[in-house]
Amino acid sequence: MALRLSLRELEVFVAIAEAGTVTAAAAAIALTQSAASQALAALEAGLGVALFDRIGRRLLLNEHGRLLLPRARTMLDAAQDMQHLFDDHAAMHLRLGASTTIGNYLLPQQIARFRQQHPEARVELMVANTADIVDAVAGFKVDMGFIEGPCHHPDIVVEPWQDDTLLVFAATNHPLAQGAVSLAQLAETQWVLRERGSGTREEVERLLLPHVGSFGEVMDMGHSEAIKRAVAAGLGVSCLSLHVVQELLDSGQIVAVLAPLPTLHRTLYRITHKDKGQTRGMTVFNQG
Predict the structure, then answer these.
(1) Residue 172 is inside which H or E element, if any?
(2) pTM for the complete prediction?
(3) pLDDT value, residue 89
(4) DSSP state of 176
């Protein structure tokens, strides 16, 4: 059967889907506006359907376009890999997303190893909370994501990546740092926690609330670095990854709160879109 579409047409289609106009898409992929318009027209003619709703100058994906988009992206990724199939020195381009704790404290070491082994590779890293990383993977803005909290998106494949330990801690001069404390004392104290939507916040609530019932007054902060510094200054008690607080523990600025709690373990996850093709860069990075 003769093919009724081309990779160039799919490239134009994806660019328009991302940019919203033919003019912006043409500029992004170094085509003239006329050539981009012709490519889209040829693709729609070949498929026998319109892919966009035209609203003024903007083009919005319709039902057909939304169905085609993930398949088009997968095919373009596969074509890029095929283009460099026999070139071991071809530059890999990897777009990663990571929730805050992973992006700031865990993933940099793996990225460094990857770049040492493949200095020609290009890596982009987006760091945000878990919900935003899930959205980025679902929208094909990143090739894969690494998250701390649960993910129930129907289009996302979730795999265990690493184990992590959480620690309840306070400043060395905090009242709850002077010896063993009860769960009731822990529940009533001032807490400093990550914002809602953060994977760490969801995991802290999942692991701690069955034991303490509820938190006392809670101050939300959007970054783990700010939380551990605030706690070290005596602002309250918190619970973060051991990777995040290890430096302050070692320096004696904070201590573990001695409450009758089990060891707080959680699983960190790697996520990809179910329609995302496995690129060479993704394969090599995951092997590291």
Answers:
(1) none
(2) 0.71
(3) 54
(4) G
